[in-house]
Amino acid sequence: MQIFAKQNRFRRGEDMDKIAIFCSASDHIAPVYVEKARELGAWMGQNRKWLVYGGSDTGLMEEVARAAKEQGAMIMGVVPDKLEERGRVSNLLDVTFHTVNLSDRKDIMLQEADVMVALPGGVGTLDEVFHVMAGATIGYHSKQVIFYNVEGFWNGLLDFLSGLEAANFAHRPLNNFYQVANTFEELTALLK
């Protein structure tokens, strides 16, 4: 694995939270999701947070990164080789981790971030969420996922997780490993 870093605009020793964002790379989703991704990105920049994400130049990934960068955030992209081969890497990255596959990408994002936020997304986002939660259930780490439940996007999944517990497929309450933010205000309160 190779790491390339551009010049850091922040002073050494300055404490900055690193927030991993899991989200859609689709450009064909409802505008409300784009709006909420940009709002979160802008907040991250204004509050001097690091964005840790998958490094794509498409969908909510690029929207959150662009808004964060415009407000001064540092951007860390964890980029699998298939994304590079397709020429889909964002040009906003301050730090780039090159990975061989999605498994490495998830491990690095988990390692580098203090907390993970799941914006609306597809199977890739679900894969990332469950990677974090599964590791926490076994005790590999104590990091949580925050589901940003824009327009009730995550309601079906949250109901499914409750069903797992009710049917005794969880050894302990699964909400030990995640939190839910139904509004932007709830989300930023959890991230402060």
Topology:
Elements: E1 2-5, E2 18-22, H1 31-46, E3 50-53, H2 59-70, E4 74-80, H3 81-85, E5 95-99, H4 102-112, E6 115-118, H5 123-138, E7 145-148, H6 155-166, E8 178-181, H7 184-191
Parallel strand pairs: 2-3, 2-6, 3-4, 4-5, 6-7, 7-8
Antiparallel strand pairs: 1-5
What does this 3D model show about the protein?
- Belongs to the LOG family.
- There is one protein chain.
- The protein has a single domain (16-191), classed as Rossmann fold (3-Layer(aba) Sandwich).
- Helix 1 runs parallel beside helix 2 (59-70).
- The protein is built from seven helices and eight strands.
- The chain is an alpha/beta fold and 192 residues long.
Tally of individual helices? 7
Poorly predicted sequence stretches spanning 5 or more consecutive residues: 1-15
User: Mean of residue pLDDT?
Assistant: 91
CATH hierarchy, class: Alpha Beta
- Strands side by side in the biggest sheet: 1-5-4-3-2-6-7-8
The computed structural class is alpha/beta
Order of helical and strand elements = EEHEHEHEHEHEHEH
Tell me the CATH architecture: 3-Layer(aba) Sandwich
The end-to-end span amounts to 32 Å
Oligomeric state, counting identical vs distinct chains: single chain
Radius of gyration: 16 Å
Q: Portion of residues in helices?
A: 40-55%
Strand content: 15-25%
> In one word, what is the shape?
globular
Number of strands: 8
Indicate how many domains the architecture comprises: 1
What is the CATH T-level topology?
Rossmann fold
Main sheet specs: 8 strands, mixed
Keywords: Cytokinin biosynthesis, Hydrolase
InterPro entries: LOG, LOG_fam
Pfam family, one: Lysine_decarbox
Protein name: Cytokinin riboside 5'-monophosphate phosphoribohydrolase
